[in-house]
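Journal club prep — side note

Before the paper discussion, L.F. wants everyone to see what a predicted structure for a comparable chain looks like in token form. Sequence:
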Amino acid sequence: MKNSRHKKIIEIIKYNVIETQEELAEKLNEEGFQVTQATVSRDIKQLNLVKIPAEDNSGRQRYAV
């Protein structure tokens, strides 16, 4: 389950601007993964995700691999 969730996280952040753990948890829940913010936080650490500037020059940041 964790491997498939990790693959889905990478897919989500590749195609969406995700700024917060809560946004990521919401997307995962929409995809059928029942997760909490705490689970997402652990996943982010395990995947070594970082925050980078969003491409739209808005000053926003997004998660990236």
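L.F.'s comment for the group: The chain has a mean pLDDT of 95. Keep this in mind when we get to the figures.
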